[in-house]
Amino acid sequence: MSSREIFTDRAQGLGLLVPTIIVSIIFLYYPAVRALGLSFYQATFGRSSFTGLSNYTRIISSGDYLGSIVVSVGFAVCVVLGVLVVALYFTFLIHEVDYGKSVYLIASIWPYALPPAVAGLVFLFLSHPTIGILTSYIESIGIQVDWFSDGGQAFTVVVIAAVWKQIGYNIIFMTAAMNNIPDSLTETARLDGVGRINRLLRVYVPMMSPTLVFLVVINTIYGFFGTFAIIDTMTMGGPAGATNILIYDLYQTAFQSYDFGFASAKSVILFIIVGLLMIVQFKISDRYTFYGT
């Protein structure tokens, strides 16, 4: 007799789901509905008045917010592509070594173990324009670094920090996916004279496509939501809004300007943007993802 219990009673299954349902309602669905309702009000501490769609018209007419959308989309695209490319290459290098694989794997994963705020502070000191070790090496080859005042440099440095923080998470899943590729495919590719890079791109990547699709979705969410602490500790949205992504702009509106109605409208717009991106990603991935036969 198997030791695994099989529940055939729907009531038992529902009972097991009740804790998850309660937590989701309290911390996910109710706040979402509340934010949607609050977006139609002009709300501050202790005061609110119904204003209809005025918050949304403010968003449409706000050049700064539209600029923040462009920055956020560009930032997310750079983070997603950067994380996938770097993590895939590192995973392949680790997969190819014969000795010390565990050491390399742990070394590549450890940045993900850092809290985002700590990761931002670490990279702040590494890349600081005056005291940063990384900056000193860059300037030694004739490149001047001052991302506190240069918007392009600021955008670049926070992208690098965000990519560095997220690489470990991707390597974990990519390593598992790469280890599941049959050795016979690798041996056949080697016998056919397929080079390492071609083997990675033409053999491994198609076999790993379901995992890569999952990571694209996770990294997109990370790019829009999970990089708040890095932005806050390194640039605070500056200079001149060059790194003012939507989630940080939302924070400023809600907790610095205390305009909760306007912030709620921004949160609804952010949800719609990310939702549309998810739909596009899933539509595209259905055409190119290999799930086997």
Judging by the overall fold, what is the CATH architecture? Answer: Orthogonal Bundle
Structural class: mainly alpha
Q: H/E order of the elements?
A: HEEHHHHHHHHHHHH
Backbone CA Rg: 23 Å
What does the main sheet amount to? 2 strands, antiparallel
Count of domains: 1
Portion of residues in beta strands equals: under 5%
Strand order of the largest sheet: 1-2
Q: What is the CATH class?
A: Mainly Alpha
CATH superfamily annotation:
MetI-like
**CATH topology heading:** MetI-like fold
How many angstroms separate the termini? Answer: 32 Å
Percent in helix:
over 70%
- How many distinct helices? 13
Unreliable residue stretches: none
Mean pLDDT: 88
User: Using DSSP, what is the number of strands?
Assistant: 2
Shape: globular
Comma- or semicolon-separated keywords:
mainly alpha; 73% helix; 13 helices; two-stranded antiparallel sheet; 293 residues; MetI-like fold
Explain what you see.
The chain has 293 residues and is mainly alpha-helical. It has one domain: MetI-like fold (Orthogonal Bundle). Helix content is 73%, strand content 3%. Helix 5 (116-126) runs parallel beside helix 11 and helix 10 runs antiparallel to helix 13. The longest helix has 34 residues, at 63-96. It is globular and about 70 Å long. The two termini are 32 Å apart. The mean pLDDT is 88.
Write the layout of secondary structure elements.
Elements: H1 10-38, E1 41-44, E2 47-50, H2 54-60, H3 63-96, H4 101-113, H5 116-126, H6 133-139, H7 151-179, H8 183-191, H9 196-207, H10 209-226, H11 228-234, H12 246-255, H13 260-288
Antiparallel strand pairs: 1-2
Helix pairs in contact: 1-13, 2-13, 3-4, 3-7, 3-10, 4-7, 5-11, 7-10, 10-13, 12-13
